[in-house]
Design brief:
heterotrimer; A mainly alpha; B mainly alpha; C alpha/beta; A: mainly alpha; 13 helices; 73% helix; 0% strand; B: mainly alpha
């Protein structure tokens, strides 16, 4: 049995391409069947006429794409990109220090890491309503500020861009912290000591040693935050007062009240294509100076 | 090196944790509040915990969520880690395309994923239920696991693996005794994300769940969407306490094992 | 248990979309997409016409041991399900949804296993149109006579062959009478004296609909000039709004953050239990009324048990229990007679000002664009 296994492994070892594909096959097939096929369905929807009662009718049309490139919808897309970028930047600014502290601590490491994801084991809506309770005019924060005499009248916190960003950062922070932690954790403290001995000040140590080594985690984190942030819509509805639309709201509406699956699909396809082009360009610049990183 | 953090760094991190946990604190406190609408504090009560016992749908939802969460996390973590290894180590045609394919689930709006999976399952004649929920959850969390493990793999030192192979260990043993332990922080981070995604998903699940298989988020969403029901605070508090306890025990057990 | 065939396979089988046709289209187009497309059309439900048969499926003599109900969330009595299980021995599997569109999408995909669902008036018409429901057998509903005739024979089902009324409601103004004078018109949203203290429902049909009523139009209007007027009124109101917010506004009405909300009567009644100063006003220009119905999805496996549940709900005490919890109106005359605390049906004069929402058909796209412009404006 073990002999056969060894021979199989040796056989695989002589065929690196096959070896790679055995690793890829399970997840690849799963994604292919249960994500790529549905996406193709969606792209299919996007070029078909709208069904009067939802769904689509057979035929071929590009009118939904033409409709999307209307200033009204492009403005919504532009706004969404800006919001997602700001959210990503905030997550990075707040998440990096957290990942660093978790990676550097010994005794509390597991607990600190766990506390980052714990809030997400309650329901999204429940958390959001708790935030609304904190932020509203008669909420906890305003009540405390008023009783401490720090403000004269309640601050308008809820239903502002600030509240939307707070909600989004709250939702996406773990996606920034965990990948950065995963790269920082393997950072050898000896490197920092060496830099220190050689006279590097803390800022220089960070910029020249820590940051470059943690770049893969930072990039992964930014992608995991930015991309889903593009599609999010509930924070904008519940914390922003639904007075503005993000692309996620637009798409959601097409599959709900508007019952216009093809237009919703076309809008999703445009966003998805944009992201894929961006990722491909990034992968190309990353892989060009190969092999920049061992492995 | 450890322990000597600048003070401002500690302050930022403390504020972030406060930001993350203040809403939870509100939730826990209000699970003991007598007021039904959770507007202000009107007195201490255990009424909402008592009512929880009369809500079989909440407990059933919790059970479905745990089953789905554990299975889909295990599958997604295994598949995602293998995929990351292949992407990081393999040199093969189509690698770039495959890696960018990874980001498709991240960018797909949930409602689109939910509806198209629903159409697919109907086409394949798979009855909606636990199976379809697990399939969907694995599909959307594999990418997260892979991206996190990939970040860990980037720049990982291979000399230990090579040493093991030179010393005569087969690849199997090398993988489990050398590679995996080195990867572990990445794998654990990925698994945590996968479980979190599964345990918190509402939109996709609501499309692929069949009769009698509503997960906790689906039940809770229905309860709070229209009304603020304090039993929600009670069940959330119990889930928080239970999971914290579980992690703490696991952490302690792990520490004792590794202690010399 | 018999399940309906998924539309895709059924279309292939029934010949509405023959295999040869499929292959020919794929080859002719030279690309996969339009081919996938034609299959999708079949999936989407807009494709092949189902025979609009009103044929009554056979009724089993004895109820099945279980029934699967799919209802709006938070829309049933405290003990309705437990009582039904105890009295009949039929086990209930109960799940909830949040919108008519979610319900239709799920039933359209087939194979959900639900035996009883509660769509709103305009959704019933859509579901009938695409053949998602099957007729009700009134001969086994011994409590049918309890229903108020005012809620029978609606335009979406003139003979009540498909639907049994479940609950009704209206939209209007929920006012904190201790904070501001009671308004009688939608125009209150244009009064900047209350800026930042008011909310409207986050719903395309309700917001545009109320501004159509405000100008004396039908809330089902598809006239571009009328819609443009509604958009202008909605934008003027938006400047004074704190937010667009639906059911969750109740907590803020009670807390006093919001003094005036565009809200449904049942939700107002629920909030009034915590804040007695709240009143519900039907604006003089008129508003929306809806009626949700119990219907049986096509191919439901447990038809008899579903009818048992419907008949149970038609009992006066059960219907009263549901309305007491939900705050919404009961279409059950016997329940209203038994419990005077329940919401009364609209008077004849009020009914003149109320209008049911109809499906907008192809004009939905125009409405959606205006809604997007209101949000972006």
């Amino acid at each position: 049995m073990t002999d056969r296994r060894r021979r199989f492994l040796a056989w695989l070892g002589r065929r690196p391409v096959l070896q790679a594909w055995t690793l890829i096959a399970p997840a690849g097939l799963w994604l292919l069947l249960f994500f790529l096929v549905p996406i193709l369905l969606m792209i299919g929807y996007s070029v078909m006429p709208r069904g009067t009662y939802g769904g689509v009718e057979s035929g071929f049309t590009l009118e939904h794409y033409a409709r999307f490139f209307d200033p009204l919808y492009l403005a919504i897309l532009g706004r969404t990109v800006v919001v997602a970028l700001v959210c990503t930047a905030l997550c990075l600014l707040l998440g990096y220090p957290v990942a660093w502290v978790i990676a550097r601590s010994r005794r509390w490491r597991n607990l600190l890491m766990f506390l980052v994801v714990l809030p997400f084991w309650t329901s999204f809506l429940v958390r959001t309503f708790a935030m609304i309770f904190l932020l509203r005019d008669t909420g906890l924060i305003n009540t405390m500020l008023l009783s401490l005499g720090l403000v004269e009248a309640p601050l308008t916190l809820l239903y502002t861009p600030f509240a939307v960003l707070a909600g989004m950062v709250y939702s996406f922070l773990p996606f920034m912290v965990l990948p950065i932690y995963a790269t920082l954790e393997k950072l050898d403290p000896a490197l920092l000591e060496a830099a220190s001995v050689l006279g590097a000040r803390p800022a220089a140590r960070f910029r020249r040693v820590v940051l470059p080594l943690s770049m893969p985690g930072v990039v992964a984190g930014c992608l995991l935050v930015f991309i889903p942030a593009l599609g999010s819509f509930l924070p904008s509805d519940l914390l922003g007062g639904a007075k503005q639309m993000l692309i996620g709201n637009l798409i959601q509406n097409q599959f709900a009240a508007a019952r216009h699956w093809p237009f919703g699909s076309a809008a999703s396809t445009v966003v998805m294509a944009g992201v894929l082009v961006g990722v491909l360009l990034y992968l190309r610049t990353r892989d060009r100076p190969a092999p920049a990183m061992p492995g | 090196m450890t322990g000597r953090q600048p003070r401002w760094l500690g302050a930022i991190v403390a504020l972030v944790y406060l930001f993350l946990h203040l809403p939870l604190l509100v939730l826990v406190v209000f699970s003991f509040n007598a007021s039904r609408f959770s507007v202000e504090w009107t007195g201490f009560t255990l009424e909402w915990y008592r009512q929880l016992l009369e809500r079989p749908d909440i407990l059933a939802g919790l059970r479905v969520s745990l089953v789905v969460g554990v299975i889909s996390t295990a599958v997604a973590t295994a598949l995602g880690t293998l995929l990351a290894l292949a992407l990081a180590r393999g040199r093969f045609r189509g690698r770039g395309a495959l890696e960018s394919l990874l980001y498709v689930p991240l960018v797909t709006p949930e409602i689109v994923a939910g509806i198209s999976l629903l159409v697919l399952f109907a086409g394949l004649k798979i009855a909606l239920g636990l199976t379809t929920i697990v399939i969907a959850h694995v599909a959307f969390s594999v990418s997260f696991v892979t991206v996190v493990v990939l970040a860990r793999l980037a720049g990982m030192d291979r000399s230990q693996e090579e040493a093991a192979l030179v010393l005569g260990a087969d690849e199997w043993t090398t993988f489990f005794r050398v590679t995996l332990p080195q990867l572990l922080p990445g794998v654990v981070s990925g698994a945590l994300l996968a479980f979190t995604l599964s345990f918190d998903d509402y939109v996709i699940t609501s499309f692929v769940a069949g009769s009698g298989t509503s997960t906790l988020p689906v039940v809770v969403y229905g309860m709070v969407r229209r009304n603020i029901d304090p039993t929600i605070n009670a069940i959330s508090t119990l889930v928080l306490v239970f999971t914290t306890l579980l992690i703490w025990l696991a952490d302690r057990a792990g520490r004792e094992r590794f202690a010399r | 248990m018999t399940r309906p065939d998924p539309p895709l396979l059924e279309a292939l089988r029934s010949g509405a979309l023959s295999r040869r046709d499929f292959v020919r289209r794929a080859l002719a187009a030279g690309a996969g997409l339009p081919a996938i497309g034609s299959v999708l059309a079949a999936c989407g439900g807009g494709g092949p016409e189902r025979p609009a048969d009103g044929a009554m499926p056979p009724m089993p003599a004895a109820p099945e041991g279980e029934v699967a109900i799919y209802n709006w969330s938070d829309y049933i009595g405290e003990t309705t399900i437990a009582d039904f299980e105890r009295e009949t021995g039929i086990r209930v599997s109960y799940d909830t949804y949040e919108s008519n569109e979610d319900l239709i999408a799920k039933l359209q995909a087939g194979a959900t296993g639900y035996d009883l669902v509660m769509p709103s008036n305009y959704a019933v018409r859509v579901m009938r149109e695409i053949g998602l429901i099957e007729p009700i057998d009134r001969t086994v509903l011994s409590n049918w006579g309890n229903l108020d005739p005012a809620f029978l024979a609606q335009s979406f089902d003139p003979e009540n062959a498909w639907t049994v009324p479940w609950q009704w409601g209206t939209a209007g103004l929920a006012v904190r009478t201790d904070r501001m004078p009671v308004p009688d018109s939608w125009a209150v949203f244009h009064d900047d004296a209350w800026r930042g203290k008011m909310t409207q429902l986050d719903d395309m049909r309700d917001v545009i609909g109320c501004w159509l009523k405000y100008r004396g139009r039908s809330l089902n209007s598809v006239d571009p000039a009328e819609l443009a007027g509604a958009k202008a009124d909605a934008l003027r109101a938006k400047a004074n709004l704190k937010s667009y917010l639906s059911a969750p506004v109740k907590a803020q009405l009670i807390a006093g953050d919001v003094w005036l909300a565009h809200l449904w009567n049942g939700d107002t009644a629920q909030a009034k239990t915590a804040e007695p100063a709240l009143e519900f006003v039907l604006p003089k220009e008129g508003s929306m009324i809806y009626l949700d119905s119990m219907v049986i999805p096509r191919g439901a496996g447990r038809r008899r048990a579903a009818h048992e549940f419907i008949n149970f709900v038609l009992r006066a005490d059960v219907a009263a229990g549901i309305s007491r919890k939900s705050g919404y109106g009961s279409p059950n005359a016997a329940a209203l007679a038994a419990d005077p605390s329940l919401l009364r049906p609209p008077s004849a004069a009020e009914m003149q000002r109320l209008e049911y929402q109809e499906d907008l058909g192809a004009a939905t796209g125009e409405w959606d664009r205006i809604w997007t412009e209101i949000k972006a404006g």
